[in-house]
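S., here's the first fold you wanted:
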Amino acid sequence: MAKHKLAASFVKSAPVGKHNDGTGLWLVKRADGGAQWMLRVTVHGRRREMGLGGLNSVSLKQARDAADHWRAIAASGVDPIKERERQNRERARDHNTLRIVAEEAFEAKKAELKGDGKAGRWFSPLELHVLPKLGQVPIEEIDQRDIQAALSPIWHEKADTARKALNRLGIVLRHGAALGLNVDLQATEKAKALLGKSRHKPQNVPALHWSEVPEFYASLAEPTITHLALRFLILTGVRSSPVRFLHIDQIEDGIWTIPGEGMKGRRDRTADFRVPLSREALGVVDLAKPFMRQGYLFPSFKKGVISDATMARLMERRGMAERPHGFRSSLRTWLAEETNAPNEVAETMLAHVTGTSVERAYRRTDFLEQRRALLERWADHVSSAKVE
């Protein structure tokens, strides 16, 4: 039996410093009056120092018992610190449910999302289709069959939502792995194999042919917020969200600078995107200024800005199958059929990323002046119809 060096009476009044009890157990007394137990062991030729708790909560006898236990672990060739961490993870296993880890992953992801993800679109595929079935299951137990069962009801009918849910779930699993949890990082790919190829055939957003755009543009003659927003969207080829959230401070010297976080589909969400405004587009801005509220050119009647569906409803009420997003296709087709714009310029018109990462690294231009000339020609085209 090992001979101990410390007495209980000494431990209570030990001076500041390190006091050896023998066989690797030490009492460390700090200048602030606190004290803790520490065990030194050697594993695989490497010295490890392991805290065993504070003096206020761990007595001398308890510290010696704990030291005996962890020394035996070390003697078997197992790192006692890693073993304790493993045991702690095992005890916490039931608390690391898919929902808890998913919410933690969402918090970590928020900085990359528009408006810190307040709109909920990133999390909603999980919230609606995965967590109701698997939310209370420990994430370490989640396998491909669980995922298959959760997503099979929407795999063909709501293919895009199912794809997003699978993508988000993969991110959550990687977050769990980063936490040190024993998750199957291949579970989503395995589930995809089990689910099979989706029968869903994606449909492009219906779009007016570019030759029909002038007639529609001419029909937006009323100086209402909805008409003006649609006209501006058509003239710029930008998605509806940046148009709806257009703030007057974003326009300077005929250039509209869209903050990077407002740009969907770009790899670098921190990079701003410049849109040269045609004379026609600047005229729309002037017409919208009387409606401006808190700097936003297209406010709603109640608060905030017009909703995502406002412009679409106008087209729907007219019995049109086409939707606002389709005007981006109208512009792109016009560029291909009526201009000699290089592909990289045409794609940049729609804020699409082109070329390899190396090509993009060396390409230090956004083709602003080329796009300015093309958008001026596009504005001439769309505003060419007579207003009846």
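And the second, which I think is the more interesting of the pair:
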Amino acid sequence: MKKKKGLIILLAVFIVLLLVYFALQSFNKKQEEKETEKEASEKIYVTDIEEVSSIRYNVGQGDFAFEKDGDTWYYSTDKEFPLMQSYPEQMASTFGNLEALRKLENGDSLEDYGLDEPVYTVELTDSDGNTTAVYFGNETQDAYYVTVNDTEDVYTVNSSVLADLEYTLDDMAQFDDYPNIGSGNLKKETITQGEETTVYDAENEDDAENIAAVAGGLGAVSLDTAADYSAEDADLPQYGLDEASRITVEAVYTQDGEEELLTLYIGKKDGDGNRYVMIQDSRIVYLITDEICNNILNIEE
């Protein structure tokens, strides 16, 4: 009987401790929420744009402009440019609600902050066609002085916000995926140039050295430099990539136990140690070194 009574007491103590634990958890959560709300209410924003539909800027890399149509962002100069969406999305997020470090009260004239002749200008247009211009003036420690439109209100913002704009077109391009190919998974390569066709087959023992050579070339390809982001059929002859001029390389390889086919077109030399190359069904013309192309084609220099 005493043992049973002791168990009941222990159970009661456990329940009380459990209730205290959950009460403390709830209290701490509410305190964290209050602190978060307080911090949010104390933040200062230079801009407050609900939906950014276009962005224009020049921060030393040249003039860039992006616009949004529906849910898709485009490079304004060339809508066929294969733009990676994460870049303009991040720009819109950062500059649509640009957070300030502080707002200057009773500040000096715009000239004193370099805002009479801004170093950089970022123009944002919202979905209603309203344009907001953010001007960047002098840099001070790790911040820039900025103002918006003609308000003459001066803020400081972290200089790191400009990092979202410091990309080249190559950085922002969504290049084609390229498979991992090596002598271990290359099954066959077929090279066609005009009426001439050459085949290297991994199942042919006599082709072992050839397969190793062309696999080394195929495995060294890196699609990271473009000569043309959206080549039309009429543009292909200048690259030697029209159907009558190009060399067609078909590589059969295995991936995850399945046979796959890569079709690569090799064109003219560019005069700087590279050749123009395209992947089948892509409109991007890439530059790949002569050395790699020679390996793919099994040509000795």
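Why I say that: Confidence is low (pLDDT under 50) at residues 33-41. Residues 186-296 form a domain with the Immunoglobulin-like fold (CATH 2.60.40).

Talk tomorrow,
H.
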